[in-house]
Amino acid sequence: QSALTQPASVSGSPGQSITISCTGTSSDVGTYNYVSWYQQHPGKAPKLMIFDVSNRPSGVSNRFSGSKSGNTASLTISGLQAEDEADYYCNSYTTRYTYVFGSGTTVTVL
Amino acid sequence: QVQLVQSGAEVKKPGASVEVSCKASGYTFTKHTIHWVRQAPGQRLEWMGWIKSDTGDPQYSQRFRGRVTLTRDTSADTSYMGLSRLTSEDTAVYYCARENTGGGGVFEIWGQGTMVTVSS
Known about the structure:
- The structure holds 2 protein chains of 2 kinds.
- By secondary structure, chain A is mainly β.
- Helix content of chain A is 0%, strand content 44%.
- In chain B, the strands form 2 sheets. In chain B, strands 2, 4, 5, 6, 9, 10 and 11 form a 7-stranded mixed sheet that branches.
- The termini of chain B are far apart.
- Chain B has strands at 3-6, 10-12, 18-25, 34-39, 45-51, 58-60, 68-73, 78-83, 92-99, 107-110, 114-118.
- The interface between A and B is medium-sized, with 26 and 25 residues.
């Protein structure tokens, strides 16, 4: 199972909005609404930011939102803040009861 | 509080095997599936497999099938990840993660990670 495709890096100025894409296939993102997004700061465990495509766990800022169209899911961060600088990974359920992560995106706040 | 505590760092020689443990506390162990994820230095997260804590049924990523074994001990509220025939490419931080009861790969609780170094 190949990794889902994400841009290697995305940057934005404080206050701006950025969007990270996550492209899969009809065997994963395109068929199942089990897409989640994780934020990871250096040396730390990942943190769940979005689940089931567009749902936010309790405690996660409403500046984070998710969506999906066809084989591509997206994570949007609005009102970008310095603390949002981190790596972001998408994850999707696939056929045969397995999961796959994305290639990862480094977000830089300029 | 709900937490997963993993065993300490390991250093292994090529060809050896390693077992990492993941002890759960603060919740009913058998109600949640445990997933294992690894991350090589500077690389992406990589999903390895899951184990249902009630039945012990595992599911493995095709990439690791034949080398990875997931088990659990309900009397100790602990899950285990065993990896055999280690090579330098297995040098990574290994995480366990608790899946929410709704399934769908929703991992709200993670262990602190266990560094496994494979070196001759």
